[in-house]
Design brief:
By secondary structure, the protein is an alpha+beta fold. The protein is built from 14 helices and 21 strands. Strands 3-2-1-13-12-11-10-9-8 form a nine-stranded antiparallel β-sheet, with helices on both faces. Strands 14-15-16-17-18-19-20-21 form an eight-stranded antiparallel barrel. A two-stranded antiparallel ribbon has the order 4-7. Strand 9 and strand 10 form a beta hairpin. The longest helix has 26 residues.
Length: 492
């Protein structure tokens, strides 16, 4: 997977005075149009203003096979939106006096180390949860992996830093795993138990679960979908998150997220009226820590944004004059978006059951336009154009690659000679097998069925990494290495 940072936050021009709230029918119409425009089977939408829930509703179907409706109680995976829950828990530990944001990580979790000893010595909790550690994404160290969180964390010292410590921004879920372990040590309980006792239960978020198996027990649960090569909606199989994951394993309903949004809009007060965390500490999690560039790729996703920064589990950006704080989540078959407009006391959540769709970003922007009295923009048309442009660019790139291919350039070795085990210090072992005249590579839970492309390069013909190229390194008549998904493995 390419865990993209998809964080739909948007910002808008401040109206001179707050108008009467739009009628719910206006939000219904926007949601219906968005589902149709992006071919999304179903969605749940939440809008809160202050302590009032203006919209909390399901649209479309949670399962195309059964045509069952999405409701306010339909369970969706939150994926990376889990991060904002983890940082809220950390803020509570700061209030308890057992943690400071600028505490060295080694003070509380010495087992976690970076490969650079200087960076490791300076690493703080704030660094862990603001994507400035120097560590790249390294998603294949955890995504769909058959091993657990502790194994992933043990591999981190074997990874060279991708950029200078505190010298940039690179989205990475791994440091949040370490942050969860710190919470467990200081809170003296499992991350999921601390979350439940200190946040989920006080907020009466009764639909929240922390693993795939728990979510599967819900009778009202959304199932994942994707668009196939023909552009038709089909079911998409997810993968099991067996272990509660502080970076991305929570599941919740629209009803749950209404309470979560009200908690943030009120800066730490539960809908019951009880304060759960000091306002200034919760606000710290939504304060920018690390500047993000918007002059390249993100600019097409956030066309009206001038500046963007990562806070702690949130992204802070501007849009047409308003400050917006938000974060997106991507899980196989789903995409979600949680967004705050603090100056308007507004909160939004859009949960969808279509893989990697731009619908949550589009609908969130349209809802902000509606509730902040901004001039409407056809966000669906805008994002559809971007999707089509990206698809065309990819098609052109693949066509150019295939045209430049030299089909007469044969492999250096007989196919069977490429078979064997290849290792990487952090990622472990990849295996290449030869059977029935074909090669197949495997790593973690992934399979790479291969066909010859040119020389010692092969094309992945199916499954998760279809159309990627896999290249073997041959020296003195022997395969000594292979590059899978950008990872360079060396033959044992």
């Amino acid at each position: 997977m390419r865990l993209l940072l998809v964080l739909a936050f948007s910002i808008h021009v401040i109206a001179p005075a707050r108008a009467e709230k739009p009628k719910p029918e206006a939000a219904d119409a926007l949601a219906a149009d968005a589902l149709k425009a992006f071919r999304v089977p179903g969605a749940a939408v939440v809008v809160v203003r202050g302590d009032k829930t203006l919209v909390r509703k399901g649209y479309g179907t949670r399962d195309t096979g059964a045509n069952t409706p999405v409701t306010a109680d339909t369970v969706f995976p939150l994926a990376s939106c889990t991060k904002q829950f983890t940082t809220a828990l950390l803020a509570m530990l700061v209030e308890d006096g057992v943690l400071e944001w600028d505490d060295p990580v080694k003070k509380h979790f010495p087992e976690f180390k970076l490969s650079d000893p200087n960076a490791n010595a300076l690493l703080t909790m704030r660094d862990l949860v603001s994507h400035r550690t120097g560590l790249g994404a390294h998603d294949l160290l955890w995504y769909r992996a058959p091993w657990g969180i502790d194994h992933t964390l043990k591999q981190v010292p074997l990874l060279p830093l991708d950029y200078p410590f505190r010298g940039g921004y690179r989205y990475s879920s791994i440091p949040f795993l370490a942050a969860g372990r710190v919470a467990e040590k200081l809170g003296k309980d499992k991350w999921e138990k601390l979350m439940f006792d200190r946040l989920i239960e006080p907020l009466e978020m009764k639909g929240v679960t922390f693993t795939t198996a728990e979510a599967a027990k819900a009778t009202d649960r959304a199932l994942g979908h994707r668009l196939n090569k023909a552009g038709k909606v089909e079911r998409m199989q997810g993968y099991e998150l067996k272990e509660p994951n502080p970076s991305g394993s929570m599941n919740a309903t629209a009803r749950d997220l209404a309470a979560w949004l009200q908690f943030h809009v009120s800066d730490g007060i539960a809908p019951s009226g009880k304060r759960l965390v000091a306002s200034k500490l919760l606000l710290e999690t939504r304060t920018g820590q690390n500047l993000m560039r918007v002059d390249v790729g993100p600019k097409t996703l956030f066309p009206d944004t001038v500046q963007m920064s990562y806070a702690m589990g949130w992204v802070v950006s501007d849009y047409r004059g308003l400050k917006v704080v938000g974060h997106g989540g991507l899980y196989d078959g789903f995409r979600v978006q949680i967004t705050l407009v603090p100056d308007k006391d507004l909160g939004f959540a859009v949960l969808t059951n279509l893989h990697d769709t731009r619908m949550p970003m589009s609908l969130t922007n349209s809802l902000i336009d509606l509730y902040c009295e901004l001039k409407p923009k056809d966000w669906a048309a805008y994002y559809r154009e971007r999707i089509e442009a990206d698809a065309e660019a990819r098609a052109v790139m693949l066509a150019a690659r295939d045209k430049a291919r030299d089909p007469s350039a044969k492999p250096s070795l007989p196919l069977a000679s490429y078979a064997g085990e290849y290792t990487h210090p952090a990622y472990g072992t990849a295996t290449v097998t030869h059977a029935a005249g074909k090669l197949t590579a495997s790593y973690s839970s992934f399979k790479y069925p291969l066909e010859h492309f040119e020389r010692d390069t092969f094309r992945v013909t199916a499954d998760f990494f279809e159309d990627e190229l896999v290249t073997f390194v041959v020296k003195e008549g022997k395969g000594i290495g292979v590059k899978l998904s950008g990872i360079e493995f060396t033959r044992k």
